[in-house]
Q: What sequence folds into this?
């Protein structure tokens, strides 16, 4: 096994074995320790029958083991199937069955839901590996399984450090589907990841903070990218706004991958708390995964050091655009222009390019040589592609300068009285209300109009407002047919850990039992 400098954990372990690779609380894993553990895990997996192209389900909290398992599977040419630690038994069972996972690596704190999953989809004897040093509820522990394995690489181990995963889509239109990327030679995988790192200006001297759940694409891939570079990653078990600031100061963090929901929480801290911490080490804050309200983005640009906040748009499938802070100030609300070597198109329902400013379906071009399919869903795969570009159902427009703006997910679009209403447009207006902290706009049944616009609003602490007040506020800036006809005030909106509002969950209360959703 060999890998070039800066192209994998093994390389850094040879040159800088005592350098911290991962930090979690007061615990530190050096590159030398990490490399030896990755080799041991890879040997144990191979002994259990895991080989090239096989899948292993991983339901873990943020921690060292997630990245150790990811890299061990990468050395065998196998794939990690990320499973949410918030997942319920039937969801876990579905992903294990659909992916054909040979093993499940999990945590004893998830025992109840894992047992529910295994009652529905049994794993073979020895097929559940339990991390931690507490007594597992199913056979030998993870540590016992790897303790006597060699610390040297398995024969034929793959070099480098790619992001070897079978990510499942969010399932907003039905059950999630696994994304299978076309396999690339290991050297190409490492070079591709290093190319992205170079685009962002990342290198081995960076300290990368991981505040989001690593089973999601951006937090997991950004963490792995920095391990590939030989940088240090600091892992948060869960996001807490003041803990985030404390860790930035303590470890002199240089960059982080965030989502707008985290910005909300940072900005909600008292001024004296935010001012308490030194953020001068920060060079780059990336954010994505959910639309960022313009008012929130304007404030967060002033919170972090000047010139550090960059936004990008893309999908687990690939592709992407990006925008720097100065560009964003000139084009507020935009998610930027394509990454080098990529492209974006906006097409109408007949596949024709939309004129500048005209809303249509967003299509992204993959990097050269890359492709993907949805496991067991040939129709969905075919439907995603048009002339070498793919879509995940997002709607938006390009301006005359080629900057992309997101309107909404097609599934989120409300059709009221035959008119299309894009929730994001309504949400942007409500976010400007000084009493509003968070908001989701959905379509609910309306016997006359088919659907009517409903806003579900979380107010700032200590504030009060009426539905009539919020509707009147919208009517100042929106056509009346776009404004909410009803408003519900809630203590907290349900969001996925990566920041997306669980709109399907919100809609379900209103649409349950109906034959159609429009």
A:
């Amino acid at each position: 096994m060999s890998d070039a400098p800066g192209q994998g954990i093994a390389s850094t372990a040879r040159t800088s074995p005592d350098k911290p690779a991962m930090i979690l609380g007061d615990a530190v894993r050096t590159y030398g320790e990490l490399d030896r553990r990755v080799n041991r895990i890879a040997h144990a997996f191979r002994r259990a029958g895991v080989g090239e192209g096989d899948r292993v389900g991983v339901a873990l909290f943020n921690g060292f083991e997630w990245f150790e398992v990811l890299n061990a599977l990468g050395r065998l040419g196998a794939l990690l199937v990320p499973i949410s630690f918030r997942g319920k038994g039937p969801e876990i069972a579905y992903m294990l069955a659909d992916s054909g996972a040979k093993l499940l690596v999990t945590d004893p704190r998830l025992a109840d839901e894992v047992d529910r999953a295994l009652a529905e989809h049994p794993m073979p004897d020895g097929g559940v590996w339990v991390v931690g040093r507490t007594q597992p509820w199913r056979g030998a522990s993870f540590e016992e399984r790897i303790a006597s394995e060699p610390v040297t690489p398995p024969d034929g181990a793959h070099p480098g450090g790619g992001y070897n995963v079978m990510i499942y889509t969010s399932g907003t239109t039905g059950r999630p589907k696994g994304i299978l990327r076309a396999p690339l030679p290991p050297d190409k995988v490492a070079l591709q990841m290093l190319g992205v790192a170079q685009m962002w200006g990342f290198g081995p001297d960076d300290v990368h903070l991981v505040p989001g759940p690593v089973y999601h694409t951006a937090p997991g891939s950004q963490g792995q990218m920095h391990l590939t570079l030989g940088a240090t990653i600091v892992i948060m078990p869960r996001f807490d706004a003041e803990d985030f600031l404390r860790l930035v100061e303590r470890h002199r963090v240089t960059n982080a991958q965030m989502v707008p929901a985290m910005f909300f929480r940072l900005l909600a801290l008292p001024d004296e708390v935010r001012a308490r911490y030194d953020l001068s080490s920060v060079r780059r804050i990336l954010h994505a995964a959910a639309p960022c309200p313009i008012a929130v983005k304007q404030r967060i640009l002033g919170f972090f050091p000047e010139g550090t906040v960059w936004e990008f748009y893309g999908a687990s499938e690939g592709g992407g655009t990006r925008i720097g802070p100065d560009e964003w100030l000139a084009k507020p609300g935009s998610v930027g222009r394509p990454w080098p070597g990529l492209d974006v198109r906006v097409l109408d329902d007949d596949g024709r390019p939309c004129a500048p400013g005209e809303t249509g379906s967003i299509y992204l071009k993959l990097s050269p040589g890359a492709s993907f399919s949805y496991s067991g869903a040939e129709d969905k795969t075919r439907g995603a592609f048009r002339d070498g570009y793919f879509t995940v159902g997002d709607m938006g427009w390009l301006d005359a300068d080629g900057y992309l703006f997101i309107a909404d997910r097609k599934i989120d679009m409300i059709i009221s009285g035959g008119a299309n209403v894009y929730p994001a447009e309504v949400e942007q207006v409500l976010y400007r209300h000084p009493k509003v902290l968070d908001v989701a706009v959905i379509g609910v049944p309306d016997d006359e109009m088919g659907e009517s616009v409903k806003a579900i609003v979380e107010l700032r602490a200590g504030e009060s407002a009426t539905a009539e007040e919020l509707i009147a506020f919208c009517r100042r800036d929106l056509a009346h047919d776009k404004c909410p006809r009803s408003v519900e005030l809630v203590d907290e909106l349900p969001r996925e850990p990566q920041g997306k509002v669980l709109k399907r969950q919100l809609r379900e209360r209103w649409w349950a039992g109906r034959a159609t959703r429009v």
User: Anything to note?
Assistant: The CA atoms of residues 207 and 235 lie 11 Å apart. The mean pLDDT is 90. The chain is about 30% helix and 25% strand. The two ends are 56 Å apart (CA to CA).
